[in-house]
C-alpha cells in the first residue's frame, strides 16, 4: 500500500514540487497551507508520515509536532506518526530542538526534492521495524507488560501513552532490566545508528518517560541515573 504523506507547507510552488516528486515514487500527498488545515486533516484521517514546515502564517510546525508527541491530537496512532521537519533555519540549535521535540528527521531549505524523497523513505523504513530491540510477542516485568507486536507497554494494567521513540527506549530498558544502558546504546535502540540525535536527546526523552511513569505510579521511580554511565530500569 502506498504511503500517505501530509505536507504542511505555505509555499504553493514548493508544495507542488514536493507532491510531484513523491507522487513519482508512488506516495499519496495531502497538502495543507496552514496549521489549522493540517490539524483538521489529522483529526479526520491517518497518515504514514508528516512533513512539517516551521515558518507558517498561523504558527510553527514545531508546535504541531509538540502536540502530536504529547498526545494532544486525539486520533489513534497520531502520537507515533513519523515526522520530518522542513525549515529555513539550519543552525545546530534549531536542528537539535526539532529532534528533541520528536522529529524523525530535519531538512533545511533550500533542499533537493529527491533528497527529501530519499529521507522520507528512510524514515518510513526505520518506522516499520523497531530498532535495536529484540522482544518476544509479550513480556512482563515488575508490573510492566510489553506488547511488542503492537509496540505498546502498560504499567499495572494501565497503558502508557508513548511515542515511538519512548516505546523503543522503555522496551530497551525493560528487556535489560537491572542492567545499565549507556546513552549510545539507547540512541541506537530508539533512533538507529544513522541518526543525528545526541546524548541530550536521550536525556530529554528519559525525563518525559519518567513523568509518564510517575503519572501512573507516583510511589516510586522506575528509571535510575548512573552518572557517566547511563540509565537503568530498576529490577
Automatic annotation (TrEMBL):
<dbReference type="GO" id="GO:0005829">
    <property type="term" value="C:cytosol"/>
</dbReference>
<feature type="domain" description="OmpR/PhoB-type">
    <location>
        <begin position="136"/>
        <end position="235"/>
    </location>
</feature>
<dbReference type="InterPro" id="IPR039420">
    <property type="entry name" value="WalR-like"/>
</dbReference>
<keyword id="KW-0597">Phosphoprotein</keyword>
<protein>
    <submittedName>
        <fullName>Two component transcriptional regulator, winged helix family</fullName>
    </submittedName>
</protein>
<feature type="domain" description="Response regulatory">
    <location>
        <begin position="4"/>
        <end position="124"/>
    </location>
</feature>
<dbReference type="Pfam" id="PF00486">
    <property type="entry name" value="Trans_reg_C"/>
</dbReference>
<feature type="modified residue" description="4-aspartylphosphate">
    <location>
        <position position="53"/>
    </location>
</feature>
<dbReference type="GO" id="GO:0000156">
    <property type="term" value="F:phosphorelay response regulator activity"/>
</dbReference>
<dbReference type="InterPro" id="IPR011006">
    <property type="entry name" value="CheY-like_superfamily"/>
</dbReference>
<dbReference type="InterPro" id="IPR001789">
    <property type="entry name" value="Sig_transdc_resp-reg_receiver"/>
</dbReference>
<dbReference type="GO" id="GO:0000976">
    <property type="term" value="F:transcription cis-regulatory region binding"/>
</dbReference>
<feature type="DNA-binding region" description="OmpR/PhoB-type">
    <location>
        <begin position="136"/>
        <end position="235"/>
    </location>
</feature>
<dbReference type="Pfam" id="PF00072">
    <property type="entry name" value="Response_reg"/>
</dbReference>
<dbReference type="GO" id="GO:0006355">
    <property type="term" value="P:regulation of DNA-templated transcription"/>
</dbReference>
<keyword id="KW-0238">DNA-binding</keyword>
<dbReference type="InterPro" id="IPR016032">
    <property type="entry name" value="Sig_transdc_resp-reg_C-effctor"/>
</dbReference>
<dbReference type="InterPro" id="IPR001867">
    <property type="entry name" value="OmpR/PhoB-type_DNA-bd"/>
</dbReference>
<dbReference type="InterPro" id="IPR036388">
    <property type="entry name" value="WH-like_DNA-bd_sf"/>
</dbReference>
<dbReference type="GO" id="GO:0032993">
    <property type="term" value="C:protein-DNA complex"/>
</dbReference>
Amino acid at each position: 500500500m502506498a504511503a500517505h504523506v501530509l505536507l504542511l507547507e505555505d509555499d504553493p510552488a514548493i508544495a507542488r514540487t514536493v507532491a510531484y516528486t513523491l507522487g513519482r515514487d508512488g506516495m499519496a500527498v495531502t497538502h495543507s497551507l496552514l496549521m489549522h488545515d493540517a490539524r483538521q486533516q489529522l483529526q479526520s484521517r491517518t497518515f504514514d508520515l508528516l512533513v512539517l514546515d516551521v515558518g507558517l502564517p498561523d504558527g510553527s510546525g514545531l508546535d504541531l509536532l509538540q502536540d502530536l508527541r504529547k498526545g494532544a491530537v486525539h486520533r489513534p496512532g497520531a502520537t507515533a506518526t513519523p515526522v520530518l521537519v522542513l525549515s529555513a533555519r539550519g543552525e545546530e540549535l534549531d536542528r537539535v530542538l526539532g529532534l528533541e521535540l520528536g522529529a524523525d528527521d530535519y531538512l533545511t531549505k533550500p533542499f533537493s526534492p529527491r533528497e527529501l524523497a530519499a529521507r522520507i523513505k528512510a524514515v518510513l523504513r526505520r518506522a516499520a521495524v523497531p530498532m535495536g530491540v529484540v522482544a518476544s510477542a509479550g513480556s512482563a516485568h515488575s508490573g510492566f507488560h510489553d506488547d511488542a507486536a503492537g509496540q505498546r507497554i502498560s504499567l499495572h494494567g494501565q497503558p502508557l501513552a508513548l511515542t515511538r521513540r519512548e516505546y523503543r527506549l522503555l522496551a530497551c530498558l525493560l528487556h535489560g532490566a537491572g542492567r545499565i544502558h549507556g546513552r549510545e546504546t539507547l540512541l541506537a535502540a530508539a533512533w538507529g545508528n544513522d541518526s543525528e540525535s545526541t546524548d541530550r536527546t536521550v536525556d530529554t526523552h528519559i525525563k518525559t518517560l519518567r513523568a509518564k511513569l510517575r503519572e501512573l505510579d507516583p510511589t516510586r521511580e522506575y528509571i535510575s541515573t548512573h552518572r557517566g554511565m547511563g540509565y537503568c530500569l530498576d529490577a
